Amino acid sequence: MLSKKMLRDIRKHKTQFLSIFLMAFLGVFVFAGVGGESVGLEVNIDQYYEDTNLADGWIYSANINDLFLYQVDCLGATTQMERQLVVDSVADFENDPDITLHFVENNTISKFYLIKGEPLDINDEDGVWLDKSFADAKGLDVGDNITFEFEGFEIEKEIKGLGYSPEYVYHASTSSVIPDFNKIGFAYLSYKAFPMDTVPYNVLNVKFDGTPENYEDILSYHMDGYYSSFIPQSEHSSVSQFSEEMDQHRMMGDIFPVVFILIAMLILLTTMTRIIAHQRTQIGILKASGFKNRSIILHYVSYGFWLVLIGSILGLVIGPMTLPQLFYPSMSATYKMPSWDPAWSMNFVYVAALMIIMSLAVSYYAVKNISDEKPADTIRPKAPKVSSSGFVEKLGFWKHLSFNVRWNYRDAKRNKFRALMTIIGVIGCSALLVCAFGMYDGMNDLKEWEYNQINHYDSKLVIDENATTSQINTVADEVNGDKLMEGAIEIESDNAKKSSSLLVLNDTSLVTPTDYDWNKIEIADDEVSISQKMADMLGVGVGDTVKWHIMGSDKWVKTKIDKIHADPISQGLILSSEKLEDLDLNYTPTSIVTAQHVNQSYDGVKAANSMKDMTSSWDELTESMWLLIYILIFFASLLAVIVLYNLGLLSFTEIEREIATLKVLGFKSGALRRLLLTQNLWFTAIGFILGLPVGYIILAVMWESSGDSFYILPSISPTNFLLTAVITFALSILVNLMFSRKIKKLDMVESLKSGE
Amino acid sequence: MSTIIEFKNVNKEYKSGDHILKAMDNVNFTIDEGEFVVILGPSGAGKSTLLNLLGGLDSVTSGQIIVNGQNVESFNDNQLTEYRAKNVGFIFQFYNLIPNLTSLENVELMKDIVDVDINGLDVLDSVGLKDHASQFPAQLSGGEQQRVSIARAVAKQPTMLLCDEPTGALDSKTGVLILNLLQDMSNNKNTTVVIVTHNAILAEAADKVIRIKNGQIESIVINENPKKVTDLEW
Fold this sequence. Notes:
Chain A is of the alpha+beta class.
């Protein structure tokens, strides 16, 4: 019989029960969906690296001969090694795509991941195993022939297989952040396919025991001078780029869903408590008729349990199935990975379980409280709280306030808990909105700052590594450009050690460093400037000294910091070529920037990139971010509607009688709607104002954790600030409109029957 | 004395599925200005239906209700709201005061719906509650709350006071005080008072007694010499 009662109760209060269900569902859906995306990336990449036995490190040397192998083997820590010749080539296509060729002696480390064709055969002289993304972009297939040119050789091979490589999850040219699969690729060939008898191996893939630092110490101790550099797995450009991408996803996957589920849970629990509180008299009746406490508690606890359970399970299943699919397509345009599957984490289950347990606990507590009272008391409605005139009411102006204001003030005062919940709900929603719009503005600021405030050139010519000084100077003169040297450095302070970038810059109007406020700053010829974020990470300031060396060289130098500049995407040092040479380091320009638009090719220039190319690659890179931001805004708004509607509904049930009385007395529906709207707007305003700093803090945390190379200050533009306000208040008014029908349909007669 | 309320052939039917319930079956009566009217009948006789129709809370199936020369039965929702605001002072069994407002504020609230120039304190004084002006309903006894509710109804200066079992939730002593107050309003201030009750004793105090049964008028009796409420034997 009781279960019949439950079903009828649920039908009668279907909106409230629906919102319980929705909140449980949405909370878990978003949590598991957004989480499933970032966990999915991790699981997929880990699995991929494991399946293909990605190298733990790479040792570079001009000539890796048998003696070299013997020496590395003698290090002890080395568990597995394999040498190969890695060489840049140009494939025979109109756009001269860059294909990195790997001539391998064996392929058990960083294995080629075959998708189509026959497995890599290290004795096959005629075959080539090609990058599938490149092949797809060019319409190549197994059986086709392809020609490569490198270092004076020209080889034509038959494509035997297509696939991916764990070393090329991210693979972009030096000139653009975004990989263009039409222009860049890689290929694996047997060492026998090399056109000479002796292969000048230059890379040694190694697997080793212990930490990379430890291995590098051993390596440099025993083999100093025999090799040019060692790169551990974590610093490999593909690996580190993808892990940074994952970091970005993880930080959003952490903060946003947590905030979201907290709000959902809060409102869920409030609703359940309230629903039970409304059943007070019924609990009294059940008790009076002889039901055991235990069966009453069981009855009411099971009220929400089933809905929360079903909602959570659906969220757990549907979230990871749908949300990641929104992100993966745009990501797979940048990264090359064989599988893009959302994954599950036990964390999702724990969170859902927590939600279910909390709802059980809260309803248990609520029923227990009521059923512990004597049935004689419970059977009567709870005595109304006695209002008292507080400080505000004693002030002179109180009497002049309208009924609307007075009523709402007192109502809020009498129902502090409900008021608090509404405000917290609004805080959460407006914080999420601020956060979403702040991300939007941050991304735009970054673009404007980097590509308009700092860099003013039209084209950037990437200098070929083999170009001569005279070639470089000729080109620079011809395009009326300025030379830059960009490189990777490792920098160390007393507190920390970081990889960062080096920019060698002579006085030019085409690249103008700025401070964090976008004001141009002058860096004199004898000065060294460090970026704000790098300075923060290293814990150094102006006047301090840092130690650094250019990657690939082991010559450490010490410099004093004279200035601090700020840059949104590149963290490191800026100095002049004069200063560089003072430090006894070679000045080797890597690019030429010019205000002219360069279309033609020059000797000694590898590629020309226009500013337009770069900004459009940036736009492409941020595509998945936009998507995330839209999803954020959508769910924050949805949550706001549910929270406001739900709490509105709860308070409506509580004041239904009063509203009915007012209606009987002759108040017009419009006036009553305004009565409810007033309170809604007050709470929305308070929540909104408090939500701003909260959103700002979340935003700051997000940017802070966005990876070592990004430096974005949390800010929100006036337009978006306004938009946040408009959305928040529009939702509040929308919810109010939903109640106008309820006011119209309110049964006056029925509401007046019941006693107080 | 002029007729102020008239029911002409009023029918009210409630449909539930195929079943039709006749709650009001061809009801005719009139009430004069300043009359103290008691409507009597057992449970389910149609008292509440009559009251709801008269109070503008429900509409007739057929027939006419004329109040102050207006055809109430033809009003739409907005007009009904207006009608309730201007013509009807409700007094409920359970008082229905706004718990968030003090006694005085409950009374002065009426200024928000009708354009009357009243002093809330004076009205409270007329029901003997001037000293309780700043107290909230929950701080008052049942009888006091009902007096505030009378003050609230009177404050509108309505055409009629419509009372639904006004003493139903009170002890008999307090009930007499409330009824006495209502009778005084009728006698001294020429206010039309309509009381719906199942308590037959009150009949002796009424100017007019309308008895209803099964949705029909059973009898209408006019007392030439109504007794004072306080003289009744309870």
